[in-house]
Amino acid sequence: MNQPTGIIGAMDEEIALLLERMEDSGSAVKAGITYYTGRLLGKPVVVCKSGVGKVNAAVTTQILLDTFGVNRVLFTGVAGALHPELEIGDIVISESCMQHDMDVTPLGYPKGVIPYQETSVFKADPPLTALAEEACRALNCRYVTGLVLSGDQFIASGEAVLQLREELGGACAEMEGAAVGQVCFMNGVPFVIIRSMSDKADGSAHLNYRDFTETAARNSCAILEYMLQAL
Catalytic residue among 14, 95, 176, 225, which? Predict the structure, then answer.
């Protein structure tokens, strides 16, 4: 049997549509996280909700690799836009990701750099990135590729957006992707992060976040299904 593809969402809304479409499904609970195994469009998958934040995302990803033997990881969800051309509903596909709240600047390290590590910028798998781009074009989704910034903070001010964009060059800000990327890098497993913009990270999230989460989830589901058909 082919190795399964691991699919992670941070929230229930982000995996609900996928679970509805799965066949031959079963489930197992590890570290309080429910992993759903089965087939999606005839392809073996393991789908799970990580929960919010980098620790949850890292634990979820390592279990996917160790217990379920996935050979690639696709992370889907919503994010706040940093790129000036992005609008709500647009997609960011990771070229790479890093932690924006890793800050050891008092010791002389640039912001975002993890001391004593080979790299602090985790590069997404180019073929998976290219396939996600192909999916967006086929589905007429507006998208950009770029750097996904992750931190255990909900970015909600224009000042913070400007800082993350100018200092680090981020396309979007969220709370899990770099943890997924780091675990995949450490294990030599390909990954890609696909984020739908639910807000512009400018303090207006309370006005549109819930309204657009459902739309973003539909977009993400369609992109993932396109990718699975091609894998």
Answer: 14
Separation CA 63–CA 66 (nearest Å): 5
Write b or e for each residue in 57-96: b if 16 or more Cβ atoms lie within 10 A of its Cβ, otherwise e.
bbbbbbbbbeebebebbbbbbbbbbbbeebebbbbbbbbb
Contacts of 83 (CB under 8 A, 6+ apart): 92, 144, 146, 165, 170, 171, 172
199 is catalytic: yes
**How much is the pTM?**
0.92
Q: Is 159 a catalytic residue?
A: no
pLDDT for 117-170, tens place per residue? Answer: 999 999 999 999 999 999 999 999 999 999 999 999 888 777 888 888 888 999
d(C-alpha 150, C-alpha 98), whole Å: 6
Active-site residue, from 13, 95, 199, 225: 199
Q: What is the largest CA-CA distance in the chain?
A: 53
Q: In this predicted model, what pLDDT tens digit does every residue of 57-80 receive, in sequence order? A: 999 999 999 999 999 999 998 888
CA distance 169 to 126: 19
